[in-house]
Amino acid sequence: MLWTSFDTWIVVLGALSAMACALLGNFLVLRRMSMMGDAISHAVLPGLAVAFLVTDSRASLPMFVGAVIVGIITALLVQFLSRFGKVDEGASMGVVFTTLFALGLILIRRAADQVDLDVNCVLYGDLNYAAAAMVRIGPFRVPEAAVILGIVLTINLLFVVLFFKELRISSFDPELATTQGFNAGALHYVLMTLVAVTAVASFDVIGNILVVAMMVAPAAAAHLLTDRLGSMVVVSLIIAAISAAIGHVGATIVPQYLGFSGTSSAGAMAAATGLIFIAAVLFGPRRGVTSRMWHRLQLSLRIAQEDLLSGLYRQEERGVAKVPASGAPSLTQWLVRRRLLQQEAIERVDGHFALTPRGRKVASRLLRSHRLWETYLVDQAALRADQTHKTAEQLEHLTDAALQQRLALDIATPTHDPQGKMIPPE
Asked: I need a surface site. Which of 183, 224, 228, 268 has the fewest CB within 10 A?
């Protein structure tokens, strides 16, 4: 692959468009309005047609203004139907954007056949054309789309930085935002206006269908990777920029191995964003599927270890040992015993496992929590003694030193549980 300045501009345009979309997409995702970008980007079609009918021109400014106005109307109609019509917000979006999109198609096909408007370009964008349409700024020649998208990205960035606190509060609790003295509704409409502006500005580059992917996927992936809003915004911007680079490189190189010359760079950028989102779903450090499976496995092993230790402690109380060191244990039993041996919590004695001083200390703490819970459930919850074992067995694994001490104080620090068994001291 021979990399040229043209390829660089394609990546820059894709990155600017994706970052402008992702920046606002964070707040759409948090507000559970991910499809608002879809609604606005489809609904602006009648605005394009009406702008042509009024001005009889395909000049960028009238078309842009017409599309933005309809985008704002879309947001207003969705809110109106949702708030006053008592219609689910998702249903409101579906009704409004399909109606306006159909109206736009009718205007273009019936009332304005002479419109020289490439619908496919509106839907899918044209990165190659956008990268080739240069304008001169001082001594430099840059794509006109880069100037427009750079301005839109700057406006979006300033909006997020200046109103970050307000956006954060209104995204999670609009009523609290209103009580703190700023109008959450007005902020919402400003956000929707910027979503409309960003969607329209991205038409020539990635098209309105792919605008939806860029508004949702980077923000959703970032949400899986971090719990802090500031970090989420930064991560979403990084994902958007990386997706643009990977998408164009993939669109140029991968098709050659499949036997055809190339494919849409904009589509490949959206696909790259989707792949990054899938990777976040699978491998995210906290919410990823594999991470959750790993944490569940570790939790299961910890509980099994603690159960084995407390079981050995009970056997010591009874003066018997019933866990042989030989035999064919299950995989879980083998892992549990191996880990406890490595931690020097148990040892092999005369063909059986026995507690070491370290293991006895852990087991004593577990049995103390268990028997304190049994006593608490009898004294405070009025349960029978024979009804408390299973609940106490679950709670003992979740009880830390502070909670254990509070339990003991609440039930006057007893020495024996309801069955008469001694409660191990601290």
From this structure: 228
